[in-house]
Write a structure and sequence with these properties.
This protein is about 45% helix and about 10% strand. It is of the alpha/beta class and about 375 residues long. Strands 2-8-7-4-5 form a five-stranded mixed β-sheet, with no helix packed on it. It has a three-stranded mixed β-sheet with strand order 1-3-6, with no helix packed on it. A hairpin with a 5-residue loop joins strand 4 and strand 5. The chain is flat, with a radius of gyration of 35 Å. About 5% of the residues have low confidence. The structure holds copper (II) ion. The site of copper (II) ion has 6 residues, from loops. Copper (II) ion binds next to loops.
Length: about 375
Amino acid sequence: MDTLLGVAAVFITPDWNGLLALFPVFLALAFIAWFAFTVRKYATLGPRRRAPARVEPRTPAHVHMPGGSSSPIIVAFGAAFLFAGMVIGGVGLLIGVVVLVSTLLVWGREAIRDYDHVAGGAAPQRLPAVVHQGPPPGVHMPGPSIRPFLGALGAAALFMGLVFGGWVLVLAVVFLVWTLLGWLVDFKAEYRKVEEADHTGHLENIPDRRLPIRALQVFAVAFVLLGAWQLGIIPPAGQATAGGPGASGAPGGSGAPPGSGGGGAAPPGALTVVAKNIEYDKKSLEVDAGKPFTIFFENQDPASVPHDVDLRSANGSQLIKDQPTINGGTSRAYQYDALQPGTYEYICSVHSVPAMTGTITVK
Ligand SMILES: [Cu+2]
């Protein structure tokens, strides 16, 4: 009998705490039920359109419309794959590139097929395409211009300059300004022709601009040389001059790094950390508790890549010591105050990535 009552009690006396804990679940179930009910109501509401039915779209005779294509959607997926690959990195990036490129190829093939269909070529069913020899009378068309292309190139150069910094950025700005000024000059010439047309009643195109091949060649060579110089590729490290950013070298090499804490060699008793390819050579350090310490930091990256070694609490929430950044090719002795025993984090404030994060254990 007792056993029977014991079993029945579980059902008769509810476990209020347990039920209260389940309250959010009940709430979620109620919400889902309400949502399903609403969706069902909408789905079964019936047609709302009171107007006559839609007219089936039909192309007029002699007008060519490209066929429906799923390529724009597929390309969007390809781009999404690429971005996902950029986040995942490694093989993911390769897959993203392959997916995007292949979807673009599919789209390109479709476009070529459309074009062949219109232009004739080898296509069996040639459409009666209308080829205009020029704009209709009274319609003015601006002459062909390389400026829009150069404008896009200039914008690309500017973004590249923002990544590289330094003289490449300066050259990119010069190139963009040169392009835009040239464009402006062309616009002005066209505007003059329009004004002339007010009197003559006849609108002429501006004379064809020749492609500024020479200037483009000069810019291309300058970009390559400056970029190589800034990356430290030229001049070779051995012959680097003292002032050049190419002097990404060993400590004590040409040109003492500036700055009060700077020095060519590690002071005695200092820890050493080297940054190269945006990565610390050491990810863990050990220091004694209650004693100030020094990290001799050497930045072996190109001059345009600054790094530092900031000190933070273990979870990164609290900044304990903020150090100034140093440019590539220089070194500096960073001083830190005495620490309580425990673990801390050191990190590059410019590149807060795992490769530029380490742990200091204080004992
Ligand atoms: Cu860094």
